[in-house]
Amino acid sequence: MTLMPRPFPSMRRSPLPPPRALITGASAGIGEGFARALAARGSDLVLVARRADRLREIADELTASHGVDCAVVPFDLTTQNLGEELRSLVDGDIDLLINNAGFATQGPFVNTDPQEYRREIAVDVLAVVELSRAFLPAMIARGHGGVINVSSTTAFQPVPSMAVYSASKAFVLSFGQSLWYEARQHGVTAFTLAPGPTRTEFFDVIGDSATVVGSFQTPGQVVATGLRALDRRWTPPHVVSGRRNAVAAHLAGLAPRRILLPILDRVMHPTMSTDHRGDRVHP
């Protein structure tokens, strides 16, 4: 049966705390930050990442501290038919989906193994689409729920030396904006969260000199921005975390590419191909 759009409701019920949230890339960084913040609000959690030991450590801590149920699902988001596979591993409804997992490749485009680009697109793009498709229909059927797609301020401009990553995040931004419009007609909140530079494992590998665009934030600050947006009666299609980052993203969108790209090329200082496959990457 095809669900027909209905007029926007005059008032949206705040979905927080969601009874049960699924978070990808939950073993570190922003994903772990979402897990801790939502557990403190009383939400049960499904934690998804590749690092099983780290997930269990976080789950045990949150259960002991907040009395919430934390299911651990070690999962590789490059898996074929990942939406169906992960949905089959989750017992019960999901009220909030946070598509947070991702990674980046850095360096001249021609220097990186094509297999790495396939994995990057699978995690940063395909997983967002397939997991949204797997869990959103049930939210629409119930008439409530939420989806947060985590993008990046790199979505607002191309980035030499991170060409595939910035293009992937631009896809997430555009996809999330369309999802915002379609989902809200059924009482479901969906929006894109765009962090700027964030103190995660990525910068432990490539160093702070890899970017000076915008201002650094902690994962907690990014999570707070996302949850404030989720709490709002009228959530916008996308939210940039940090005022300076929002200004930088806006200006980058206005700048002529022939001027902007050489500047970004100098900023990024690509000297070698670097691949960091952490659970959250925010250059």
From TrEMBL:
GO terms for cellular component: membrane. Keywords: Oxidoreductase. InterPro entries: NAD(P)-bd_dom_sf (IPR036291), SDR_fam (IPR002347). SUPFAM superfamilies: NAD(P)-binding Rossmann-fold domains. Pfam families: adh_short. The keyword Oxidoreductase applies. The keyword Oxidoreductase applies. Coiled coil: none annotated. GO terms for molecular function: oxidoreductase activity. Gene3D superfamilies: NAD(P)-binding Rossmann-like Domain. Belongs to the short-chain dehydrogenases/reductases (SDR) family. This is SDR family oxidoreductase.
